[in-house]
Amino acid sequence: GNSVTQMEGPVTLSEEAFLTINCTYTATGYPSLFWYVQYPGEGLQLLLKATKADDKGSNKGFEATYRKETTSFHLEKGSVQVSDSAVYFCALSDHAGGTSYGKLTFGQGTILTVHP
Amino acid sequence: GAGVSQSPSNKVTEKGKDVELRCDPISGHTALYWYRQSLGQGLEFLIYFQGNSAPDKSGLPSDRFSAERTGGSVSTLTIQRTQQEDSAVYLCASSLDLGTPTDTQYFGPGTRLTVL
Lengths: 116, 116
Prior knowledge:
Strand content of chain A: over 45%
Number of helices of chain A: 0
Largest interface: A-B, 26 and 28 residues
Number of helices of chain B: 0
Structural class of chain B: mainly beta
Radius of gyration of chain B: 13 Å
Shape of chain A: globular
Strand content of chain B: over 45%
Helix content of chain B: under 10%
Oligomer: heterodimer
Number of strands of chain B: 11
Distance between the termini of chain B: 33 Å
């Protein structure tokens, strides 16, 4: 079956530090990959996505590259801000198995706290 | 409306009671998903609707859980004879297209269910 594994958290950084949150996946077909973010007191919202190998998703200074050879989709940001404090979820949806819809399989989430 | 809405935002109920959770998707979105977010299990898929049909109910944890969608719009998730392990945040999401894996899902704020 499909699965997503995220690095253990929580992650605590100082403002302007470099951020990496690791994400690896297992899928039976050709997944699309997503990063969702949940800010305190708010709902899940899409941060970025990539739909095929070697694609790079980017948004708000965050980037992630779909690496099929390493089955990874690591999230990076060069300089984090206090406002980036949130829970980050890596997720995939899969084309295989006769299901062509977008059911998401999520990682366990990584709590990021950025201090001034 | 501008986004996915869910009601109620919070629900406290006694063990054994039935509850109904409502989701209003973004107008025109044909695909609708229910997920559950709990401390022990993370984010889990429950059920997927395409229009008023539910081609995938595989995530419903027991026959106490059911869902329907009417008019290709509003969806209701019903939990009968609630148990304490049903306590979680129930999330609804919708997407514009035919529920393909590349679609972006837009999430509602969730309903926090507490079973005493």
